[in-house]
Each structure stands twice: as C-alpha cells, then as structure tokens.
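Question: Hello, beginner here. Any chance you could explain the protein record under this note? Any guidance would be welcome.
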Amino acid sequence: MRDALIEKMYGFRPSEYIQKGLCVPAPTGCGQPVSPFAQASDEAEYKISGLCSECQKKYFEETS
C-alpha cells in the first residue's frame, strides 16, 4: 500500500529500487547504487525509504 501511494505521488515504487540495490530516483534520492552502510540504522532506513546513506543525510538535515 505504501508503494502504491508513493507511486501515485512521485511516479516510482521504492520496493523496486530496494530490490535492485539502488537509491530511489530524483528528486527524492540520487538513483545511484547504494554503498555498504556504515550504521545499521542507515540500512534499516534504506529498507523503509529507499534512500542511500548520503541522501538520508541530505534529506534529514534539510527537514530538521
């Protein structure tokens, strides 16, 4: 259900990118292959949002 909502809003399904080991596309993410995660919390967030570590940092810094 979350994938369907995000697809309606942004035009992509995060689960498809997560399965391929990619960050979600712009404007939310960078669309690049994910690097190994330095922290377990970054990997856990990736499995939810599809954002790589670098995009997580950018996103959460901008929204805080």
Observations:
- The radius of gyration is 11 Å.
- The chain has one domain: 2-63.
- The chain is about 60% helix and 0% strand.
